[in-house]
Write a structure and sequence with these properties.
heterotrimer; A mainly alpha; B mainly alpha; C mainly alpha; A: mainly alpha; 22 helices; 2 strands; B: mainly alpha; Helix Hairpins; 3 helices; elongated; membrane (chain B); transmembrane (chain B); NUOK/Mnh_C1-like (chain B); CPA3_antiporter_subunitC (chain B); cell membrane (chain B)
Amino acid sequence: MTAAQLLPLAVAVPLLGAVTLALAGRLLPRLGCDILATAWASADVVLLAGLWHCSSRGTQVNWVGAWKPTGGEGVGIVLVGDRIGIGLALLITVLILAALLYAWRFFEEPPAGHRGTFPALILLFEAGMCGFALTGDLFNAFVFFELMGAVAYALTGYHVEDPRPLQGALTFGVINSLAAYCSLMGIALLYARTGELGMAQIGRHLAGHSADALIVVAFVLVLTGLLVKGAMAPFHFWLPDAHAVAPTPVCMLLSGVMVELGVYGAARVYWTLFSGPGGIPAHAMRDVLTSTGVVTALLGAVMCWQQRHIKRMLAFSTISHVGLFLVGISLLSPQGVTGTALYVAGHAGVKAALFALTGVLLDQHGSVDEHSLYGRARELRRSAGIMFVLGALALAGLPPFGTGLGKALTEHAAGEFLGWLPAVFVLTSAITGATVLRTAARVFTGAGGRPDATAGAQTRGDHEEPEVRDPGRPVPAPMLVVPALLLAGSLVLGLLPGPVTALTRAGQLFTSRAAYLAAVGLAPTNQPAMPVVTPVAPPVVWTGEGIALGLLSTILAAALAATALWGPALQGAAAHRLRGLAAAVTQRLVAPLRSLHSGRLGDNAVWLATGVAVLLVAFSTLVQP
Amino acid sequence: MNLLGPLPYLVAGWLLLVGVYGLVTSRNLIHAVGCLAVAQSSTYVLLLTVGFRRGGTAPVYSDTSPRSVVVDPVVQALALTDVVVGATVTALLLALVIQLHNRHSTIDPDRLNALRG
Amino acid sequence: MSRTARIRLFWGAAAVIAALYTMACLRLPHFGTAVHPYGDRAVAATLRQRTANTISSINFDQRAFDTLGEESILFGAVLGATALLRRTSHDHNTRPRPVRVLPSTRLFGALLLPVALLTGIYIVAHGQLSPGGGFQGGVVLATALHLAYVAADYRALQRIRPRELLDQADAVAAGAFTVLGLAGLVAGVAYLQNVLPLGTFNTLSSGGLVPVINAAVGIEVASGVIVVLAYFLDQTLFATGPAGGAFRKKAER
């Protein structure tokens, strides 16, 4: 049995796990369910690690049901496990395992008689995400996209006692489903033109036509679903509402990997379907996605700085980072993909750890509000506090964390395209890092002055429903061990040369359309059938420039956090004038931006329509038939 | 040019926009979930339109000759999958609406103000 | 954003989308075109697999992996409803009471229920032959059972609805689909490969794996829909949360 034959198991095993847990949850006690779920998730990690190992020999391809095409024409669905796809699936399984471990004895009230419901939903979520990462068929991608979506809506609204999770889950559900239907419209248009559903097949058939209005509309519609999941501005409004209210283990998964899957999907769809003749020219893709990526990164950073609800703050930080990932992908270069892949992996560990630590605060103090928690978590400063600070620094890109290395590689590739792009990377990661650092200093040490407790029109984080049975108990061990392991994982990614070497090859394979076509048996006749990988240059790991920029954004983050903490207390005319300026900027520019984030369903829907219209105009202008 | 030619395709686009308009202006979450279903029906119409073949019959060969001309069965299978997906998503969203109503006595999306800024 | 601004923004966006979508439609093949390459291949493959209903062959054989994902969404919806519509300690529950129904309604319900159940089973069983299949038949079966609620009252529905059993049947059927796929792998061929004997064209046993998966889907859809509806009915009719239940008052009137 070959590794390629085992590819569908990445979906089938978690599905079977969900069924087993749903059934066993009636018989087993609470502890039994937790052990079973953890064992099952560990088995998934082992499976994917094995597939990752095998994928070093080349792209693994599986025609489900043995519907292998003859003469390049078939009726079946193909799973394509290249290193980026399998690597992403491996990341998903690792985070699922982390979330399930973290959630041991977590919920107060599992549904009566259905104790396995929560872990079963998590495993279904895993199946959906793994299927989406591995499929090579456009409609199949839609199905798995909807699977992960539907399960995520249910998980987000899990705390039905509080209206906010219900509201967040509804907005999440309606907007993401609407976007998915836009994608399906695009898939139908592509089917009408090419008569195919496989990604590689569609891409090959597009070559016979010119890039006209049909291609632009289909491309934008397909992209809409993916970029709404990927929270690109102005499609991002649902994300902070959903991430702020979901149960903590779910937040770890949503921010850690689900949002990034949207960016991955956009990249996959572009390279496989549209990067060839008859598709979307590279300059159009590069211009549009780079500019929206930069806007998303800046907007996320500014909004992150303004938050006091810690989960919402982390959600905006995810938006900011996703903007950077978009920039990395939009460079359309192997280096950009390699850097982004590493950045995504490092970010997943760090962001999941930060959410996990926020969950500890919620567990101990029943609040995730930066202001009301001021100085209240001093007794946790040696455990959760240190990890929170490390997470903040890693978010800012401190070497040698994986986030730092990913940022350095992406930044370098971006700098070769546009000289000022690295400045965006440094600035936005410094702001998001500074925000988390500021929070850590206030919550765990009571640094700076007591923040002004008066709340404007904003989301507060106190009066949260505690997620646990007994807020007075000591912190359960898994809730501290899991974030420690996640941070350590992110550190290892930056320290070891193995992942970079593997991802350097993976980036080259991912950006090679010919290699993808060859892998699924659609090699153009004039090219050899085996994937052609250009001779591999020795992978770049840490460079002086990368370390310098990483340190720069870390120092900048520390300086910004210090300003926020102690700035208000500074004496002197200059400090007074600067404070006045900051207040004016906040009043004039930031307040209107914040009021746009109204959390209303109607506003969300209209921003979705506006985003589609903007993308349509941008691509039609840039694509000349 | 035959003006009626692209009409079925345009109906799909119309349905999508009408659904979004409903979502934008909705004052009732049950209505909003209904509007989402309207928007989704655009995908059914587009898929089935794309697969139509003039003079084709249903792609079921239990009582017709295997040589008879049929419409594209693939889009019908896709539409069936799509219907099930839509129904389940609708069920989940309605479950959220019911809980909002039962526990928090509002289903007006514009009166939900807890998440902003 | 104010309501007026929101609607204005929508009209602007909608105008752009409408214009470009129309331009795209003008470039599409003509409505009713004879060119359907994938469709033609799917029909050929269906006849090779001796399945009469092409759509069932696509859903349960050629693109069965799509259906696997879709069944999982349904299973996820059942689990989601279990989680979202669960009773919490805040809920107060009331008991269903007998309700008066017109004798004619009662009679028609009693007559229709078995007929509808039989129709559902027929549609599931003939999925590989005639229009219909696991999904359609499953929904008919689930609806049929609820005739008891329409024709009598909730207590009658409760008596004929083995809820726990159906909940387990749903999970088992969802698992059966996955395991049927694994069977191929264990037998040394591909996942979800149709390895059963294909039988004679246009008979109940034709199509190999298709009728088996079809039956599993039928069971899953029927039990899944019944269970989800049970949660909905419980929440809307008999659970009063802290905010009271206006749904209930309306429903009882």
